[in-house]
Specification:
The chain is of the alpha/beta class. It contains 17 helices and 24 strands.
Length: 526
Amino acid sequence: MSKIIRIGTRDSQLAMWQAKTVQSQLERLGHKTVLVPIKSTGDLVLDKPLYEMGITGVFTKTLDVAMLNGSIDIAVHSLKDVPTILPKGIVQAAVLKRGNVNDTLVFKHNEEFLSAREAIVATGSLRRRAQWLNRYPTHTIVGLRGNVNSRLEKLEQNEDWDAAIFAGAGLGRLNLTPENSINLHWMIPAPAQGAVMVTALEADEETCAICAEINHEETQICTTIEREFLNRLEGGCTAPIGALAYIKDEEVNFKAILLSTDGSKKIEVAKVEPLGKHEELAEFCADYIIGKGGKVLIDELTQGDKITNIYSTKKLTNDQVANFHEAVVPQSSDAIKINPNRLSKSIIRNEIENVIITSQNAVEALLTNFSATELQFKNIYCVGRKTKRMVEKRIGKVKHYEQYAKDLANYLVEYIEGTEVTYFCSNLRLDTLPDLLTEHNIKVNEVEAYQTKFDAEKIEADLDGVMFYSPSTVQSFLKQNKAKGIAFCIGETTAKEARKYYKDVRVAKVPLVESVVALVNAYYSA
């Protein structure tokens, strides 16, 4: 390559060591290079722990900008400091062979303080803080920032400190590992800890190809798993998340941890997969952590002191929550509980000519009492696309469906075969459909398939709005709370009930939860 490769790096001693290592490996391959030191925000702001600064990529953004501006060709980072999603146009070009993955405890005098009830340990890492307090809950953690040398000096200068925690790789690379130190093998490191990463512009194919020559494949495999796990947990670089993958005997071993910020709660996972069949390892372990309550812990961290401003009367999925506008701090729970009733076999003894099902709850109630083969329905009519899909998947073909009960009633008045229907409904069903049919001399045999019970929470926050999905969710919520803010409704039937209490009622264009989320987002985007 004729041009000189400009290597961007932070100007700290450790960052320069990393950059010079990359420089040495590239020059050994015959490439000309030059170092371009750049000071980052993380180096300039030393009076706050990283997790209090509220941003990820605090050590990498300045280098990203320099690369996108054309000031440097590649950038060298500690991989654990790099956000899991790189800026558009920038790619991971290489990962060097990994160093010491462990955290290292440097103590002032001896290790006896570990058994003491009270001790003071210094660290600027939320992950280290949480794991230490989980193991030693009566100890006190104090913040510690700065480069490796200054942190060692602060430990020495503070007489009341007992120890401080460092990345073992950083100490080792600068030949600063004190004799009075031990590796904390029990502490799970940060994802990609001990690894050095090189980034380049995606469009610069020549530079990317050159960097690939110094890539260490085993380290790449392991750190990719760890970072995918971190990404799937939606944790930033400063979240209390630890993850470590290593390869042994052609197997990928993975262990990870998520903690509450004070260390009082801990969720762990460990799994082994054959090398080459490890593609879903990170996803499996992240889903396990989330399923064990990890989502709640992550939300606590990311929301911090923010106050809930939108409440959903239906429990939202992780994907639905992720779709909210950044200004939304949501809270959700089911405002109604559904209990299927016990139904007599006599109801379905003979084939029923016309059946109406207006909710997925009715489908579940039927299948709780009967097998699909027992449900001999000639014509099935539904309300809602999701109800239709569930019926056709689990019971049989739907003859016709509409999005709203009133529209279905009008259709049946015009086109029904016969003059009688069986309506599987709730104890809180609306009058619209049966009243319309009865007015047109169609007999409605109501079967109360399930009970709808009010179970709303009392919400202390001063809400901007509430998301409603049925008239019963409106009624349930208002049993415990006052009508304040905006009512975001899934459809007109729900909106009709909400207008009895709310001045500002907004209706989704399509009767889906996602459409109600979009309605909320439109309010915050206006």
